[in-house]
Specification:
There is one protein chain. The chain is α+β, with helices and mostly antiparallel strands. It contains 25 helices and 13 strands. It folds into three domains: 62 residues; 131 residues, no CATH class; 364 residues, Cytochrome P450 (Cytochrome p450). The strands form five sheets. The chain has a four-stranded mixed β-sheet. A three-stranded antiparallel β-sheet has the order 3-13-10. A two-stranded antiparallel sheet has the order 4-5. Helix 15 crosses helix 18. The chain starts with a helix and ends with a strand.
């Protein structure tokens, strides 16, 4: 008689399967197994969503029952939560609308499968979470860190805790004011080359045509062009300019993105980087399900499932790392030679000779990676404090991402906002200030560039109104109580709360754009582009404690280390651009599209991707 185990194993198989040729049984079996696992996962998510709904509406013990929540408007809310409202609105607009509707800067909305999302836009809460004392107690979520690590490597953007603290200590000197003074001529050199290229494109434009004649120009745009007044995508060219700048200033690499036509650009760094960015901006429903699956304990391994997207990212990173290793080794040899020259006769190091604040050789500033490596290799740095080569590789990809995408996007939004009828006076006033300060010169030094008050107002205002990154996330390392700046009404309106209890691993959503456009902070004109508001900063804005009273660069130890670099670069480009060109809207409706950063897109031309067509002419 068969034992119990023998009776149930192997399990009986369907007749149709056993009748298949043996050679096809394996692939068919894998397919059936995949479908079964997929349905099981869907079942798991549905059951989890049902349990969350029971806890919220029947048991009233999900921990969020007292916090204000927006009304669900989708008939699929048990499965999709409030995501349809978010997806159908421009980036960050749903979050802003909910905060104003609820009259609360702390609330909860529901994501897919009814996952709760705790929104924290209270300024005191932000200072608590992001500030010096608690920043490392609220790191990025594990899934986000893993994704960024796969994409960028373990650079400053990804590192947390002691690793981040150590990296920042070594990297910080590369971004000090002395370094920015040395980089400013580089910003102007590339900006002047940029406007010279655009001037050539303007001169070569004979009028409308049937086919694009300028890179970054669509058929629709070329048909709207006029003689010496081309219509083309300015965001395409700003991206090429900032790529050239970060290549040169970041690690002494010449991309020549502005100079060379795209079909003549064969730079491996550029092609690999673009492959990475494409994988970030194009994500399938399967990837969305996998991302949510990774949030479940025990399922982190699904991040290693060999998808096409994962393979492209792996190959691009491998290419970037190979090139990066060569760059690092070249700089290491250069620094080692300088270390030998800095030795005293007794073999000790002359710190002053080795470590002047910002070296210049033949009038050219050293690049950021060189400065990082020099600080990293300094004799006084303990081995335990030095960055590894893997960490240095991570800094290269981090520089490319943070130093290229965000600045070009900010420039693009500035050029979109300023030709609008209600903002035309901004260009007139700003151009007058620029001409007064330049006084016939081609460039300014860093201190003179920073001493232009209206330019500073415009820079802060575009950062406030259209921050390229609209939100970020943090998670609690341990149970905590987050203080709030005031008492908020509970969901039923019968009581108030002035703090939020968070549990270990609690996800906290930080809505940067909501905070920057808070009417409680900036008054009734918070949604408008008003550079003059910075002449008389509202009392509530001064009391936020944020850098420049906005959250675009985050704050605290995890704040953007390259904010000085980005601001000086932005100002140099805007000055050079406005001294050379007039520009106007192409006349099409522009919407915002969420990616790594928020970019403009023409309504009705969605198939062309993100773009900002403008009509350009010489001053």
């Amino acid at each position: 008689m068969l034992s119990y185990e023998q009776e149930i194993w192997p399990p009986s198989l369907p007749v149709w399967f056993t009748n298949l040729p043996y050679i096809v049984q394996a692939p068919v079996g894998l397919f059936v197994l995949s479908i079964t696992l997929f349905l099981a996962l869907i079942g798991y998510f549905l059951a989890t969503a049902a349990w969350r709904i029971v806890k919220a509406y029947v048991l009233h013990n999900d921990g969020y029952d007292h916090i204000p929540q927006p009304q669900h408007t989708s008939k699929w809310w048990p499965l999709l939560g409030d995501l349809p409202q978010i997806r159908h609105a421009p980036p960050a607009e749903a979050h802003i609308a909910w905060a104003r509707e609820l009259n609360s800067e702390v609330y909860v909305y529901r994501a897919i499968f009814y996952i709760p999302r705790l929104i924290m836009a209270d300024t005191k809460a932000m200072n608590y979470i992001l500030g010096q004392q608690n920043s490392y107690n609220f790191p990025k979520p594990e899934q986000t860190r893993q994704f960024l690590d796969n994409l960028l490597g373990n650079g400053l953007l990804v590192a947390e805790g002691d690793i981040h603290r150590r990296q920042r200590k070594v990297i910080q000197p590369a971004f000090n004011v002395s370094a920015m003074r040395a980089f400013t001529p580089l910003f102007f050199r590339h900006s002047n080359a940029f406007v010279a290229k655009l001037a050539q494109l303007v001169d070569d434009t004979k009028g409308p045509a049937e086919e694009p004649v300028i890179e970054g120009q669509s058929v629709q745009s070329v048909r709207e062009s006029q003689a010496k007044k081309p219509v083309f995508d300015i965001s395409h060219w700003f991206a090429r300019l900032t790529l050239d700048i970060i290549g040169d200033a970041g690690f002494d690499h010449r991309f020549d993105a502005v100079k060379l036509p795209i079909d003549e650009q064969h730079d491996s760094i550029v092609s690999s980087f673009r492959s990475l960015m494409k994988m970030v901006t194009s994500i399938s429903i399967t990837e969305i399900l996998l991302i949510n699956l990774r949030r479940i304990k025990g399922f982190a391994w699904t991040a290693n499932i060999p998808t096409t997207r994962r393979r492209v990212i792996f190959n691009a990173r491998a290419s970037l790392d190979q090139i990066g290793k060569s760059i690092i080794e070249t700089k290491r040899r250069e620094i080692q030679a300088e270390m030998q020259e800095a030795k005293n006769s007794d073999g000790t190091y002359n710190e002053k000779a080795f470590f002047d604040e910002q070296e210049e050789i033949k009038g050219k500033a050293k690049d950021l990676l060189y400065l990082m490596m020099k600080a990293n290799m300094a004799p006084g740095v303990r081995d335990s404090e030095r960055m590894s080569d893997a960490e240095l590789l991570g800094q290269i990809t981090t520089l490319l991402t943070a130093g290229h995408e965000t600045t070009s996007t900010l420039l693009t939004w500035f050029v979109h906002l300023t030709p609008l009828p209600e903002n035309k006076h901004v260009i007139t006033k700003l151009r007058a200030e620029i001409e007064e300060h330049f006084a016939g010169r081609d460039e300014l030094d860093y201190d003179a560039l920073m001493a232009m008050p209206y330019l500073d107002n415009c820079t802060k205002e575009v950062l406030r109104l259209v921050s390229p990154v609209v939100n970020t996330e943090r998670t609690a390392v341990h149970d905590d109580v987050i203080p709030l700046s005031k008492s908020y009404k509970t969901k039923d309106g019968k009581s108030t709360f002035n703090s939020i209890v968070v549990k270990k691993d609690q996800l906290i959503f930080i809505p940067i754009q909501l905070i920057n456009r808070s009417k409680n902070i900036w008054g009734p004109t918070a949604d408008e582009f008003e550079p003059d508001r910075w002449d008389e900063i509202p009392k509530m804005a001064k009391e936020t404690g944020f850098p420049s009273h906005i959250l675009s660069f985050i704050e605290g130890p995890r704040g953007c280390i390259g904010n000085r670099f980005a601001i000086a670069e932005f100002k140099a480009i805007i000055c050079t651009f406005l001294r050379s060109f007039d520009y106007d809207s192409a006349g099409w409706e522009i919407e915002r599209k969420q990616g790594i950063v928020v970019r403009p897109r023409v309504v009705g031309q969605e198939e062309l991707g993100t773009q900002l067509p403008i009509r350009l002419q010489k001053v």
